[in-house]
Design a protein that fits this description.
single chain, alpha/beta, 5-stranded mixed beta sheet, 4-stranded parallel beta sheet, globular
């Protein structure tokens, strides 16, 4: 939970001259970004194994546990404010469906080729979203997180930056940001909201648009990354899904983009890739050559997502205790670390630190 000392620091955080620094330009050249002798620990939506995701409490806990970066997924409000949510559809992560005053906002929308029903951030002002409260998105796998349902607001991107700077002032550590723009092509075509413009606006206002800013920006789409590459100097990462291809480039397939020639093309506009874990570790535990091939193209590699609960693990690694029980995650994570990837997205920061320490022994 966000403590009083940190809340006090938040009030003046924007005036703190603490640029979020990293060796980003060197990273783009070498294809490797690591902390000392270990990969980066990227808190996937915060400490989402322990708190409802994309809340200030989840981000702060992740930092306290030792994360190097925190990852806010960004969606836009009707009045053009970037806020942190897993998706622009709000009922999966807030109490909006139970709010009678918003019953008439329910919509059906075709998002990236999928019909989605619910309540969408772009149909709400920030003031309206402020009245909502966050809830656990996957209660079957994380029932203990439901104890925090209703406690936290939806934070803006600016507030997430304020929290990071406050925690830097408190701890003396450098803490990075790893924002993802959600569905930028859909938002531009269907809602008339340019997510790239909004992010560039905020990065410049917050002093985070330089090559040495401790930040990565990630998207599952090609065009928006190419536009960002023309407008800001921060490291850019193309996310890669196990199936299909980028929504904005329907003729492209992810499988072709992870070949040597495909990776060389990605390196023309991005500094790294964020592939699903299956691109790194095969089902039998053997390692692929993607990390080495991407490094040869000058790209960093940050696979997603290391999770410990049975509900997220392949059948062969599930343990007892149903979806919420811990499976044989240490084995899988250990193999992933051996791949030489430069960092990992994880929902379980503390457990990843333990596995990394065991690997050193």
């Amino acid at each position: 939970m966000v403590r009083g000392s940190v809340l006090g620091l938040l009030a003046c955080a924007l005036s703190v001259i603490s640029p979020i620094l990293m060796s980003a330009s060197a990273a783009a050249q070498s294809g490797s970004v690591r902390v000392a002798d270990r990969p980066l620990i990227i808190a996937h939506r915060g400490a989402s194994g322990d708190r409802p995701e994309h809340t200030l409490a989840a981000y702060e806990l992740a930092i306290d546990l030792g994360a190097d970066y925190i990852e806010p997924d960004l969606v836009a409000t009707k009045d053009l404010v970037l806020v942190a949510r897993h998706e622009n559809e709000l009922s999966g992560t807030t109490d909006v469906a139970s709010r009678e005053e918003f019953e008439d906002r329910r919509r059906d929308k075709m998002i990236d080729g999928q019909l989605v029903a619910g309540w969408f951030a772009e149909d709400f002002t920030l003031a309206e979203i402020r009245t909502l409260r966050a809830r656990e998105r996957v209660p079957s796998a994380r029932p203990s997180n439901t104890a925090y349902n209703g406690l936290y607001q939806v934070p803006t991107f600016e507030e997430v930056v304020q929290l990071v700077r406050a925690k830097e002032a408190e701890t003396g550590r450098s803490i990075g940001l790893y924002p993802e723009l959600k569905h930028p092509t859909f938002m531009l075509q269907e809602a008339g909201i340019d997510m790239v413009d909004l992010l560039v606006r905020d990065l410049r206002a917050l002093g985070l648009d330089k090559a040495d800013s401790r930040i990565f920006v990630q998207i599952f789409e090609v065009g928006p990354l190419q536009r960002l590459n023309q407008r800001v100097d921060v490291p850019l990462v193309l996310l890669i899904h196990p199936e299909g291809g980028p929504y904005d480039e329907p003729e492209l397939r992810w499988a072709d983009m992870v070949t040597p020639s495909g990776l060389a093309e990605i390196a023309e506009y991005a500094d790294g890739i964020g592939p699903g874990l299956s691109y790194i570790v095969n089902e039998d535990g053997s390692l692929t050559d993607l990390v080495a091939t991407a490094h040869a193209a000058g790209l960093t590699v940050h696979p997603w997502t290391l999770r410990k609960e049975n509900g997220f693990l392949p059948a062969a690694l599930k343990g007892t205790g149903g979806p919420a029980g811990d499976g044989r995650y240490q084995w899988l994570w250990g193999r992933a670390i051996e791949s030489g990837a430069d960092g990992f997205f994880t929902d379980n920061v503390g457990e990843l630190i333990e596995v990394l320490e065991q690997q050193k022994r």
